[in-house]
Amino acid sequence: MRSLRTGLSLTSLASLASLAAGAALFLTAPAAHAADTPLRDLAAAKGKVVGTAVTGSKLTGAYGDVAGTQFSSLTPGNAMKWGSVEPTRGSFDWTEADQIVAFAQAHHQQVRGHTLVWHNQNPSWLTNGGFTPAQLGSLLHDHIDTEVGRYKGKIAAWDVVNEPFNEDGTYRSTIWYDNLGSGYIANALTWAHAADPDAKLYINDYNVEGVDAKSTALYNLVRSLKAQGVPIDGVGLQAHLILGQVPSTLQQNIQRFADLGVDVAITELDIRMQTPADSTRLTQQKADFKSVVAACAAVTRCVDVTVWGFADSDSWVPGTFPGYGAATPYDDNYAPKPAYYGIAEALGGTTTTPPPPTGGACTAAYTVSSQWNDGFTGEVTLSCSGASLSGWKVNWNFGSGQKITQAWNATCTQSGAAVSCANASYNGSVPDGGSVSFGFNGSWSGSNPVPTVTLG
Ligand code: G3I
To answer: Of 116-130, 307-321, 357-371, which range is least confident?
Structure first.
């Protein structure tokens, strides 16, 4: 369960961070400077939770290893949204949400429920249903009852209301506000509390990290809810930030909410940059992650820092902000970036970012690009920096009985666990600064761990 602490993965992942600048490059040598202590243990020592948003179907292989070992809380990125759980009226699909909850329980993690009342990712039967305000109120009540009730006792905190404000601090026009008025917020909190009195209930929004009109509107709302005795336990500051733009008033803002008597969570942290990433940007990103986590660490009531996807390949950013990406602490292939070490250091870790390798090298990286019941597709990328190849062979040993069934862009042979793949006639040459990939399908059962590959 915590195999990353001693096994291949953390060691090699940490070593990969040394090459995290720019394109994803990979070392085959073991790390000289592995992060010794998982983020979750560093956070726990400070009385904090460190979480990540996850996609249920990916909770296997290297992704599952990182999610399970480094984080003490999981937030379903999409699986608990209304459109996911009730795509057709009265017909529920809890598959992915259940899967994430089960994974979290197996890994002694909290779950942050996300989200009950939002204006996005609602089912079309709801948004196009022509319901009256009274009907919408009762549909919302039922939805909260059903979902919170289903996971009663299993969810540490719920993002009950998501993104209720405009940038100027006025209420956002949504199906909820437009039909029910601002009272929908107090009602949603009250209904959620009735369904699970032990869950911490949050209002969550973006662009509320610094002190400004929007965060002040949130502040005033929380103060007024508290004064009315509405069950509100915390505020979520999403923190979808831009490189070099961590608000200077972040800690002050966290503190003013804490002083109101509510918890604060950084719920969706990512820090996007223009792509491609380079070492200057990645160094700045490390400083930015570190300052966000340090601001939370400095305030007792800031209880949780959650990243919105831990790996760049699992981030919403490139799809929404073309030209931007690399916003998370791990690269596309689950290698920790400098940002990872920024988080670790802010949590009291003594790790240092591994230095860039000296001299040139060609390296090979193995990833599982997709996986199903009994099969998977793998990919190996050879990359050269300061060196080149003419003709190559990549070797590895499968650790769990996997078998290659078909390969492309390489000739692969397998004998027992040992696999050897050599270049095809047309891709033997890998120039300095270039890369070559080949792929394969394989079978697996039980588990499908990522092997260590060596370049022969
Ligand atoms: O599941 C479908 C898939 O079947 C289809 O092939 C594919 C084609 O586009 O779309 C898939 O759905 C996507 C879904 O994510 C799951 O990947 C949607 O198009 C896409 O719009 C959706 O984006 C999500 C976004 O919320 C929607 O607003 C992101 O994954 C999710 O990370 C993001 O999360 C939000 C938080 O809930 C609230 N705060 C902001 C944050 C970032 O937008």
So the answer is: 357-371
Q: Are residues 390 and 281 in the same domain?
A: no
- Catalytic one of 86, 147, 209, 268: 268
CA of 31 to the centre of ligand 1 (A): 35
Using the mean position of ligand 1's atoms as its centre, give its distance from the Cα of residue 323 in Å.
18
Tokens 């039980």 locate to 446
Residues 6 or more apart in contact with residue 232 via CB below 8 angstroms: 189, 201, 202, 203, 222, 225, 226, 262
End position of a domain, from candidates 311, 346, 381: 346
Task: Tell me how many domains the chain contains.
Answer: 2
Residue 310 and residue 398 in one domain: no
How far apart are the CA of 220 and the centre of ligand 1, in A?
30
Do both 242 and 320 map to the same domain? yes
Quote the domain boundaries for residue 435. Answer: 23-28+358-455
| Radius of gyration of the chain, Cα coordinates, nearest whole angstrom | 23
Length of the chain measured in residues: 456
Residue 34 within a domain: no
For residue 65, being part of any structural domain is answered with yes
Q: Tell me what the mean pLDDT of segment 159-184 comes to.
A: 98
Which of 112, 117, 121 maximizes ligand 1 atoms within 8 Å of its Cβ, making it the mutation to test the pocket? 121
Task: State which ligand 1 atom lies nearest to the alpha carbon of 315.
Answer: 32
Nearest to 100 by CA among 88, 85, 119: 85
Residue at 290 is within a domain: yes
Burial (Cβ within 10 Å: 0-12, 13-18, ≥19) of residue 119: middle
Which has the closest alpha carbon to 62: 111, 109, 8? 8
Residues 48 and 302: beta-carbon distance below 8 Å: yes
Q: Is there a catalytic annotation at residue 268? A: yes
Positive or negative CA dihedral for 404, 7, 286, 207? positive
Residue 179 region by backbone torsions, left for phi larger than 0, else alpha for psi between -120 and 50, else beta: alpha
CA 383/CA 380 separation, integer angstroms? 10
> Same domain, yes or no, for 297 and 390?
no
- pTM for the model: 0.75
Mean pLDDT across 232-251: 98
Strand pairing of 240-242 and 263-274?
A: parallel
